[in-house]
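Milestone 3.1: sequence recovery, worked example.
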């Protein structure tokens, strides 16, 4: 189903799914991925396990760049993953530079916690003392921007 965007660029993927695997892979994200693919929507989901301390793979960055839409599933431990935060930084960069759409899903988290980095998101940042200030500032800006987007807030199995 991937098609041309507003320019002559040919998108490889309709949707890029960004999520914290240990929070949502075996439940919400699995169901979302299945529903999207059943509808014929070409969806990229990183199925590989991530080794601690590894950097984001160039192929994953390429998949983000080649996706028309990114669906970001913010969950309780999302910000505890440097990998997820690096993905989000790239997603928001592509949104600004290429006009890609970003659709946030706030899965059992308050959108204001994402936007303001409070709650579990604030706790995660308190542990990033060994990360460069530039990188932390990019992550915070990406969370603030994405947390301010209109999306879906899922609490107790219901969209609110």
């Amino acid at each position: 189903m991937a098609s041309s965007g507003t320019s002559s660029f040919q998108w490889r993927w309709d949707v890029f799914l960004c999520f914290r695997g240990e929070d949502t892979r075996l439940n919400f994200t699995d169901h979302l991925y299945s529903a999207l693919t059943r509808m014929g929507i070409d969806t990229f989901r990183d199925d590989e396990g991530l080794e601690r301390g590894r950097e984001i793979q160039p192929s994953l960055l390429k998949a983000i760049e080649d996706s028309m839409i990114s669906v970001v599933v913010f969950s309780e431990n999302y910000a505890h993953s440097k990998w997820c935060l690096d993905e989000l930084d790239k997603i928001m960069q592509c949104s600004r530079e290429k006009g890609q759409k970003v659709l946030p899903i706030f899965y059992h988290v308050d959108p204001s916690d994402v936007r303001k980095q409070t709650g579990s998101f604030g706790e995660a940042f308190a542990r990033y003392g060994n990360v460069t200030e530039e990188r932390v500032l990019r992550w915070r800006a990406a969370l603030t921007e994405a947390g301010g987007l209109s999306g879906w807030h899922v609490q107790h199995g219901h969209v609110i």
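The chain has a mean pLDDT of 88. The beta strands are 13-19, 43-44, 67-74, 101-107, 152-155, 158-159.
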